[in-house]
Each structure stands twice: as C-alpha cells, then as structure tokens.
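explain this:

___
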Amino acid sequence: MSSLSVELSSLQQSDYSDVNTIYKAVIEECRIFLSKKAIRDEELHDTLKLESFEHYVDNQSSFVALVDNKQIVGFILTKEIDWINNQSKTLWLEFIGVSPNYRRNSIGLKLLEEAKKYALDHYLDFLYMTLNIDNEPSKNLPIKADFTVRDWRIAHLAIEN
C-alpha cells in the first residue's frame, strides 16, 4: 500500500474539466492498445460529454479521488439502476479512471470501496461492472475489492445490509 494521502469526495459539477482530462487519457491509452491489436472500437468517445457528466453529478453516487485536498487524480462514475442480470437495486459501475501519474497507489481500489459504502448506505443489493479483459490491472482491481469475476468480463458484488 502506498503512503499517498487520498481524499474521496462526491462528484461535483466543478470537477468536469479535471475528470474529462483523465477520461481522455484513459481513452487514448485504450485506443493505442486496441490499434496494436488491429481492433477499432467505434464506441469509445473522445471526450466525456457534459450532459453525461451532469447525469452522474445529479445521481450523487459517483466520486473523485483528490491528493493535496485539491487535485483530482481519479474518479468513478456510477448510477443506480432498478435491475440488471436478474438482480434488483444495483449500483452500475460505468467507468473508473485514474491519472497515469497516480496509478499503483490503490486509488482505484479506494474508489471501489467508496462505491461499496454508498451501496451499503443506500440499501442497494449489488454492485455490477464490466471489465476490460485486455488490461491486467483492470481485471485484478475487482478481485482486490472482493468482487466475483465471471469469464473475466463481468464482476459483481452482493451487498450484505
């Protein structure tokens, strides 16, 4: 574990620029990786649309990770959904991004733990996410957070209320 002091905070409208910068870096890394495998993914958006971001802010279930009490170095975008895969009251984890300069400091794990806490506090039954199977850290993160991983594509966690 790192000694880096990380604070977690609810996603705010004022976080858009910093979150979008990290989002763009993560998407660019993904594109580079896919191009090396001669794969093109048309679903990757170059930027996080403001309307989408506002949706995550309004849901109040997404979080940012800050260092020095001000610099955003990571985020998790989530939303509550009524059901998925025959499971009710689920927190869907849509995107986790950590600034390349701050990776390997357990920031992604801390963001997942905050999402788990949110689910517990709001009486949700499950957390659910899909995985990038070509990204080892992406695959290992949910395991570290006690998720069950199926076929290296889907991870879920039952919440005990």
Q: What stands out?
A: The CA atoms of residues 40 and 59 lie 31 Å apart. The mean pLDDT is 82. DSSP finds four helices and seven strands in the chain.
